[in-house]
Batch of 4 targets.
Target 1
Amino acid sequence: MIEVEDLQVFYGEGRDRFHAVRDVSFRVEKGETYGLVGESGSGKSSVLNAIAGRHSDWTGTVRLAGAEVDPRRRNPADRQKVQIVFQDPFGAIHPKHTIGGTIAEPLAINRRQNRGETVDALLRQVGLPGRFRYRYPHQISGGQRQRVSIARALALQSPILLLDEPTSALDVSVQAEILNLLQDLRRDQGLTYLMVTHDIGVVGHMCDRIGVMKDGRIVEELTKAQLVRGETAHPFTRELLSESLLG
Amino acid sequence: MSDPILSVRNLRVTFPSLAGRIEAVRGVSFDIGNEKVGLIGESGSGKSLTGRSIMRLLPKAAHPVADRMRFDGKEILSLPEGEMRGMRGGEIAMILQDPKFSLNPIMSVGDQIAETCRIHLKLSKREARARTLHLLEQVHINDPARVYPLFPHEVSGGMGQRIMIAMMIVARPSLIIADEPTSALDVSVRGQILRILDELRAERPTGLLFITHDLNLVRRFCDRVLIMYSGRIVEELPASRLDEAEHPYTRGLLDAIPRLDRPRDRLATLQRDPRWITEEAGR
């Protein structure tokens, strides 16, 4: 569903040009969840932004649902294949738009019909009551706001969701609810997830396969079983594990 | 336990509201000795308000009362503001989550530490600079002379937090209140910051109140844990025995954490019981 080959991501111009992601290749099958883990600055969000089309200064090949995307020009069909859910549910939603307006925006941009009914259905899918469409972001909790971000990401029925630290701003009890919701949605709608996080516990729970990033490269790829058994070859992965594995 | 460094009995923090007074902290009692005490709770549980009450750094509208809030023989809540100001950053220090908001953005980090040295230790300019470089070294900043002239936006989160700690230890506090000091940091940097805190405590007896929502961190780092729910402490136990917690809220939190050593298809979610709000902690 997602195929990335030889991805190089750059920022800046001329002498300040920074090579943030180097030779990154991986593939995610349909229905799979792939996790990118690493520290801040390791390039994991840069990979996500290149795939999402939020950053255009990259080379290499990115194929989404079989079709290659152009770094500089995305056609509307490409754009509808992928949606993103961000870490901070406070920053990701417009504070002066109602919840209903927020969820309807991608529908309006793409001139979809029956927007009212679709918003109702989306709210139901993410477990929020229909009356929430009239509320504003400051009137609901952080967990509910993250549900709104997810509803908006589902609006165009995109087969791929990119999840950038979707629960790290939430309390553990709320995190569990959001992770369960994401699992249910993936199973019911056959979604494919690419998830960025630094929480090894979350990765182990959600992801089928994991790419460990350091200094812009994927230094190791692991299956969930290997991660759970602690079978890692790379010292950096072991360090990540020992810092986060607690018993 | 010998004489505690801080002793709190029946702390209550109320806010006025249109519907009468709202009690955000509702009768919290605890002692802190020369130990690391974790204060755990979710957003809105009153854990940060409890920490801020000790510093008397509450929003203007908040009204704190306590039967006892004794630090170093003094009743904190009835101290004159002038004396309290000397205590803040002196005997009691605080570290917050994001150094970017705590540091002055238009003053170099070195000058900020030096200013603290001049105020609290009455050092000359030159002495303050020398002391600052030494402090930066103490928090494991390799090249203090290079870091001294940097501005807060030029340093990383982990470096910023180390600068905050350097500033905090100027006056050798005997009580440190750390409110989510490592939540914004990478795991490896988090480890470094915790090790620095441990080193400081090894030098002299210091009480540490570690406010966080990260149960795993508390389990490994702290000596004792207080679990707060809806303005009350609902359970208290040694950190090493966190897994034996009995209160259904603590149990619920523990079960909600995804863990590599206990893989599950679905995470347990917290089923809240209205009785948790009213019943007293079992002790």
Target 2
Amino acid sequence: MAKKMRVKAKLKAGITTVKVLINHPMETGQRKDKKTGKLIPANFIQEVTCTLGDKTIMTARWGSGVSKNPYLAFRFKGANVGDKCTLAWKSNIGESDSIEVAIK
Amino acid sequence: MQRRAFVQKALSASALTALASILPASVFAAWSETAFEAKDVDSAIKAILGSNDISDSADIDIKAPEIAENGAVVPVQVTANLEKVESITVIADKNPSPLIGSFEFDENLEPYVSTRIKMGKTGNVVAIVKADGKLYRAVKQVKVTVGGCGG
């Protein structure tokens, strides 16, 4: 499974909009494999954070009710073009990933 | 004497790192199993936000489709016209585990969040906004044609 995260951060009129798209199956643990009839183990992202400088400005805590290949967008003030923000996630089975993007 | 000083320094340094590793956890509460595994809306809210004292608010706008053809992907956007928003919590009241997610903000964040959620069947999307220590709620019904929690 390709683990990929795409992030765009764009500044317009003083407000930065961050759009995040993560490749992730977001398995609830309640779905059955159609071939084997067995439950597919839960595997979902529990936490997504956005860090600007050394400050965590947004923490999202998710259950398995967020759609597969999650999309998330949020907005903040007080950043400049070229500032770097880091998006990171971790899942219930201990997987994680992070990416740093410069605000455009 | 020199050795003692060294030991003391080493001790205080390790105490500091220990403190630093504890701090972030106290600032942001950990992922709450009780909240996400709760089977009803009230106990989920109580577990994640610590209170069920919520007032309905017209200042929260939920954008979601009236009819969702595919319950596996329901776009939801929440905007609050409130001051000092600390968090936005999204709930789908008819899901087996109603709590979808909670978004905690620092003071520079705009009171806005957009995401995509799963809905098992027709029900309400509930947005709870914590602003200045108080809880506010808005509700929007979404009709689901094909559920998103099964196969």
Target 3
Amino acid sequence: MPITQLRRPASDPRTPHSPAGANPRPPQVIQVHDLVVSYGSTRAVDGIGFEVRAGEVFALLGTNGAGKTTTLDVLEGFRRPAEGSVSVLGADPYREHDRISPRIGVMLQDAGFFEDLSVRATIRAWRRFHRRARSVDDSLELVGLTHRARARVRQLSGGERRRLDLALALLGHPELLFLDEPTTGIDPEGRRHTLRIIRDLVAGGMTVVLTTHYLDEAQELADRLAIMHRGRIQVSGTVDQVLAQHCGSRVRCAIPAEVAEAPEVRAVLHARGAEVQRHAGELRVSFDTSDPQADLLPLLTTAARAGAQARDLTVERRTLEDVFLALAESQEQ
Amino acid sequence: MSDMTIGRTLRLLPAQIRLSQQVYWRDIAFAIMGAVMPLVLGLAPAALASESLVYEGVSQRAWLLSSGISAAMLFVVYNVINSAARRREQRIYKRLRCTPAPAHSILLGEAISAAIPAIGQVAIIMVAGHYWLGVAWPVHWPLVIATVVIGLISLAMLAFGVSGLLPSGEIATWIVTPVLAGLMYLSGAFGAIPDNPVLRSIHRYVPSAELTDAMRIGYLGRDVHGFTVGAPVDLAAAAHAAYLPLLLLLVWAAVGLMLFNSFFRWEPRAR
């Protein structure tokens, strides 16, 4: 199944941005307020806040060192916040880790295995820690490692280790799943397989918090996201909201020079800071807009009145990657 | 710790012990190294001693064999610290902590698992001492068994607690080796502690010295304190003589637990 089909439809009752009043909002599973985590004098996480509701996929994005993994460490109960408060499944994840741990699955970014155990033996050993665990065969099949069941962990490729990681995280049928870079190092087919697993789990009601460097992945999977940079959340909201607020769409077209001279067209091009290049008697125009229809209307009607045509017209929706790069660049400046 | 956590700690303890044991025996090089050194240390001094030499009514071989057993048990410190530092470095403990297993379930499971091969080594030393070196069986079996169990669990827990203070796996070996040598020296297992006021005051509280005293009392059936050998005692009197060393070993176990609770980290210290 192509990745582009993975996103839940907006009409899905669990989708957080479903019309108000149509369904009661799902309960909050995670609440983070003014979270600060420091390493010595460095603030790795600097006063962030967000919430995650039951059944949604929340993506934490950001550059390396942005504070994503540190935030996950706090949510998973490995690190105590220096300031602020965190609630996971109604508990303080650091002080009450043992209370909530059976309800949580964690796929760590970089955690070791016992290298001399086989894949099957590893899953079997980890099963013993759960009261109601998936069977070994189901787990192997779920992550596509059945053919590697007898292999020792040290013989697995990077992608296969990530799959084993996912199998261990899912053993206890968790309600809340933390995925730290779940598809890093996995080949495209394996990545698609992993995303399909996540999509199916979410369809079954699981709440997922993930970090990823693959922005297309976040764009397709996440209901809501937050982009972190240097310990702070720079942007957050649904994917649509983030895209609409930052850049929106890129419009490109070629118009006759006389159309560009019309005052209403000039006003739009000026307001949008359009790039204009003269080429063979026409102007090639490109600009960013959050409302392509409103901005194109004067341009197209003027062209129509002049009996001219706006050629090679494209409206290209900006991606999360564009937003991400723009944010990172603006922060550097 | 809540009742729920205590219940889950006990319920998941066998799972952790089983996993730790499974992994221990897979790493055969580490297992052999961990097995051979204590056996050599436990048997060699008694084997080199004169068969006929008797001191205060105790054969030198019996004396050195009981001392050797306690010295062999000290190696549990070396094994636990090295393996704990290695597993923390590889983030295996962090992965284990992502399971529903409570922290103390992992600590106790690892400590008990480390004690299991050591119990085997003690048994081998006793059997070899009896059949090969002609040393009599222990006089007070219950006391010897209690000393072995309490001693090993205490040392393992103490080592686990201390491992949280060590900066990295590489440095752990360099720190633990002289510490182990110091513990052996202060145990008095192979030689008297010099009559120095500082050493004498430290010696009284060092876990290896307590272990050696308790083992000698149970094995030889004598009221032993350091190199002072008393008259033969029955089990009740032996237990009375050994209760303080055993109690101090339990205090050391509590110190290990406290260090674990305060300083143990589930992932490498440096980020």
Target 4
Amino acid sequence: MSTETDISTTASRTDLPTPGARIGLTDAELGRPGAAVLHGVDLEAAPGEILTVVGPSGCGKSTLLRTLAGLLPALAGQVTQDGRPLTGPGADRALVFQEDALLPWRTARANVELPLAIRGLGRAERRATAEQWLERVGLAGLERQLPHRLSGGQRQRVQLARALAGQPRAVLMDEPFGALDAQTRAGMQQLLVEVLRGTGATVVFVTHDVDEALFLGDRVALLGAGALTGIRTVPRPRERDARADPATVALRHDILESLGPRTS
Amino acid sequence: MTTVTAPAAMEAPAGPAPARRTARLRPVVRALSLLAALGLWQLLTTLDIQLWLRFDQFPSVADVAREFGQRLGDGAYWQDVTDSLRRIVTGFLLAAVLGVAAGVAVGRSRWAADLIGPVLEVLRPVPAIALVPVAILLFPSNEQGIVFITFTAAFFPVLVATRHAVRALAPVWEEAVLTMGGGRWRVLASVVLPGALPGIFGGLSVGIGVSWICVISAEMISGEYGIGYRTWQDYTVIDYAGVFTGIVSIGLLGWLTSTVVELLGRRLTHWLPRREGSATS
């Protein structure tokens, strides 16, 4: 069913400062003890790749991401990074949440400075780096605002800046634009593509929006009914006009078909 | 602070100007409220009202003011004030530090909850003032006993408020810091303590109030000097103006210390989204 191809060569983002991580799941059972939600998952994200994961609500997308982040141990099977088993969360895998994960008592800049402080950077360097990232996500001038003064879209920009400022080797994104209106979401997708261009990070991006998955992903993994049901390669990733391409239309149809009820 | 939506919606079109005018009026209203209470007191006592409640033995506002004025010039009064303040500040600060520490430990660690939780739960319902005999047995001097009782009084409200605040923290904050490579101390310093601060200050506000109740009671029972001791002494020699001077002093000092706690809390939690001009005490 799924069209497996060697994607290690498709990474278009070369001359990268931080090499992306290769993260993988082997025959993994995921969930909380006694309540596994995913079984027999085999999945690998190649260095520098954007792998999107789509599936209906409650299919275990967030569980998959939290496992990859090291926040949840796999119930069975293996979670690996560059071939070594993962032992816990770490600075090399940043997580971007759908819900508001900014610390509300820290200004936008202080939020972005947090991973830098954890890495032990000095005050001046921290501040400069944070301001650079905030400018890159289009928030210059809002550095000193508290999160509750920012809009939902602006808060997700700060989250993005905070995740990337720590120079992670992998960015795990849990429906980061799910709560935004359609127009803001399209803008955020574009912004994500632009800011990722400068990094070499591997991205695993979870969404329930098939169009978002097709736009952002080099490959799309399909989740459903407690298992990984397929992986598709996207013909023209991150090109807006690829949407009308017959190949994309066919792939979109194929994905909806395998995700949705058989009757549709 | 309005929970009913309809009046709030009706207020909204009025705009900011009337709101500002009401805000300017508020200190005036507060002062008037205080003056009205004093006026009522003066009226009830000078008219020697006896309507089941008997005010004929009460000193009037003027009597108390005269007595208060005299005591303010007396070194013994200030000795009492500083003694009581020293006791309450020592006890309260100890309670704040240990209450937050124990609350965080119990709220964060299952081991701590199992090891010290049951002991704390059994001790918690005991009124601090009931510990006077214990304090007398435990400590070499009354002074330390009074501080201990004051400490115990504030400790439990702080502990309980901290535990609740810690358990109510959004898990994503901690997860975010963990995925930035932060360890447990970083989580404690950057997430748990700042995030729990609004709740902790709720406990501190309650705690400072209970502390006053207990420091005064303890002084009345076993103190040497202090406002509570002085008030009781005045009562035993039927100096009612003196008693009321003591009561007013306790009220003012209590108000002063809770204001300090309140202002400190507001300063440290300035990041909380607040409605402009919302209720303040």
